[in-house]
Amino acid sequence: MLKVIKAGSRPSRLAIEQVKEIQSLLPEVRLKQVSIDTTGDLDKNTPLFLREGSDFFTREIENALIIGKIDAAIHSAKDLEVNPPKELVTAAITKSISIYDCLVSRGNLPLDKLPGGSIVGTSSFSRKQAIIGYRSDLKPKDIRGNIDERLKQLEEGNYDAVIIAHAALLRLGYQDKIAQVIPTNIIKPNPLQGCLAIQVLRTRRDLLELFGRLHAN
After folding, report:
1. Which of 124, 126, 184, 200 is the most exposed place for a label (fewest CB within 10 A)?
2. Contact, 80 vs 120, CB < 8 A?
3. Do 9 and 71 meet the contact criterion of CB atoms below 8 Å apart?
4. Distance (Å, rounded) from C-alpha 189 to C-alpha 198?
5. Inter-residue contact 165 to 178 (CB < 8 Å)
6. For residues 81 and 97, what is the distance between their CA atoms, to the nearest angstrom?
7. With DSSP H G I counted as helix, E B as strand and the rest as coil, what are the percentages for the chain, rounded to 5?
8. CA atoms within 13 A on the CB side of 59
């Protein structure tokens, strides 16, 4: 019988796919996905640039790990806070499946073809600055919610385009929605974009060894 490891993640479909991705790399164990709502999932109003480097999307999952409700935590690596709890250690940061950002737009138009005044949804301050720097006639606007919620806001006409990590669209099978993979000279991506991070208790040497095999060198 395979060893069962309770793997905590956010409840979104993307987070669940990320747990499945780690499972595919470790066939000798069975990961039981445990959904945990985080402050960032429940608070749909706070602009994300105000919480960069914080535990906005990790706190509740890390707390569950510390008290033993789960055995491991699987995050998007760029969501990790600068100063995680001392009880925890990052056992692995996986190789990125794509570092790029993508444009998803009404009419499938790339950045160069968007009409002047188009509203472009993004939750990142650096992405907003990059868009304005590339085309000052576009209007970046904050957007919140998981990937499916953001795409729905686009479909409902609240935005003319949205910027989403390429890795997220790949993991969700949404390649057909991509209007443009944005070159890095337009938007410089987060160094951890597309990577997954696995946290465990510092005292769990067995899990450190298991997940450590997935660390990208």
Report:
1. 184
2. no
3. no
4. 21
5. no
6. 21
7. 35, 25, 45
8. 10
Domains annotated for the chain, with CATH where assigned, are 3-95+195-213 (3.40.190.10), 101-182 (3.40.190.10)
At 45 the pLDDT is 65
Contact call for residues 69 and 46 (beta carbons, < 8 A) = no
Secondary structure letter of residue 130 according to DSSP: H
* Tokens encoding 88: 């925890």
CA 194 to each of CA 16, 24, 52, 161, 199: distance values in angstroms, whole numbers, following the listed order = 15, 16, 17, 21, 17
What's the pLDDT at 40?
73
| CA-wise closest residue to 11 among 149, 143, 133, 112 | 149
pTM: 0.91
pLDDT along the chain (217 residues), means of 10: 90 96 97 91 62 72 96 94 91 97 97 98 91 97 92 97 97 97 94 96 97 93
CA-nearest of 110, 104, 105 to 135 is 110
Q: What is the CA radius of gyration of the chain?
A: 18
